[in-house]
Amino acid sequence: MTFKLETNLKSLVDSVQDYCFTNGLIYFRPSENINERSNDLANQLPVTLFPTIYPRSEFQYALSIQTEFQKMIFQISQDYNFLKEALKTVIQVDDFTKRLWNIYDQVHTEGITQPITLGIIRNDYMLDQNKSIQTSPTQLSQIEINTISCSFGAATSKVSNLHAHCLRITDNTEFLSQLAHNDNLEILAKGLVNAWQMYENENSILVFLVIDLERNIGDQRLLEYECLKLNSKLKILRYTIQDFAERGQINSDKTLLIDGSEVGLVYFRACYDPNHFKSDQDWNARLLIERSKAIKCPNIQAHLVGAKIVQTTLFEPGVVEKFVQDLSVAQKLRATFVDLYSITKENLSQIIDLIDEKSDEFVLKPQREGGGHNIYKEDIRKFVDSLSDKSDLMGYILMKLVKPYTNENYVVRTGEQLAKKSLISELGIFGFYISNGDKIIQNQTGGYLLRTKSFDVNEGGVATGFSALDSLCLI
């Protein structure tokens, strides 16, 4: 199954790039002045020219289990003792995770001020040739669970329409009916607005908490503007954690204020990386937000559920079943798991031996989100050799690499010649839940993100140039 490409290539690329610029599929290149954003340095986000052929049954499988994963994530976030046990080794060696835990530990001891929470979740998968359809209900292998700052949820909604446009102008209209519908932008905006409305103060603001000089502006602004479409009374403002360190405060009833405005909901698009915190004052501001009665997306415990060690703990026998009572559902979730190894004092020497023998079969992952931190194959051995204290490995997990399928496509990227390449794809399924106390009151599957990259590239960031946004053509 292939797409015809007989159109003038320059005209086609121009059309794709024009679509990107007129539909918010943009990001900003770094400015020479590191202290300011240069608005004349906008690039289109990398996109594929055509959608990727994908099994309809696998896509539907991923969609069908999303709300079950979200229920499990919420249940884990409610279990203080489970998280404490799961994270105990990591917080001995990973200062970032330790600081996050200390915030949770403090608010748990004080008592949670705001029982309402919003979780925006993205589950990432790859189709794995190592999984036999004869022995497994799915060939999907879960790469990771994202519980904070799930990026490209808005931008991805524009890509299927871009590909519909490309199919039309290249005379491939017979495939239009097979494009997977993607209404993720509307669904995520619905989650944010619904949660903000539960704060029950129309004068409160919804804060997008972002990094300074954010480059991935198209994705974030698309979501902001969609929220405003849903509720005309809503006011959205963008602040950094440094802004809250300087000007944030909570009053006697735990109302969160900044610049005189009451904050109803804080949506974190930052604070998932140690580099986002410049000082202890920034960490104090993160605690300030968590102690307040503002609704958080996510709250600190849901953020911690996204730590890789928690994903590894779920791989262990009986752990999923602790949180998912329906065994048939638990089996469906487990069918997507790959081999994962936590690293402890007890198994440290065995893990090092495993790396020495089979490093090409694994990826070494730290606890945090944001991409660019993973170590692959032979580089793992080099990294281990460079450690003066091998116990530092306890801040990582070891994950068996999947064997993805390849496909042929073109990537439209600024400054690159259009050429057919062998590519692999990673599918992300979005969703959201809203909870009040110990109960989920809204739980919805969203749309999807497809990131496609050269088969020989390890990392998968779009704005960092590793991957391209893509969409699905279902068969």
Main structural class: alpha+beta
Evaluate the radius of gyration. 22 Å
Quaternary state of the chains:
single chain
Number of helices: 17
Attribute tags:
475 residues, 17 helices, alpha+beta
A few lines on this structure:
Mg(2+) binds at residues 144, 146, 369. By secondary structure, the chain is an alpha+beta fold.
Overview of this protein structure:
Strands 3, 5, 6, 17, 18, 19 and 20 form a seven-stranded antiparallel sheet that branches. Strands 7, 8, 9, 10, 11 and 12 form a six-stranded mixed sheet that branches. The longest helix has 16 residues, at 95-110. The mean pLDDT is 94. Helix content is 35%, strand content 24%. The termini are close together. α6 packs parallel to α11, α8 crosses α9 (217-230) and α10 (241-247) crosses α11. The chain has 17 helices and 21 strands. It is globular, with a radius of gyration of 22 Å. It is α+β, with helices and mostly antiparallel strands. The chain has one domain. The protein has helices at residues 9-22, 56-64, 66-77, 80-87, 90-93, 95-110, 159-169, 184-197, 217-230, 241-247, 280-291, 300-305, 308-315, 319-323, 327-334, 348-358, 378-386; strands spanning 26-28, 42-44, 47-48, 52-54, 116-127, 140-146, 205-209, 236-239, 248-250, 256-258, 261-268, 295-297, 340-342, 362-366, 375-376, 396-400, 407-412, 420-436, 439-454, 468-470, 472-474.
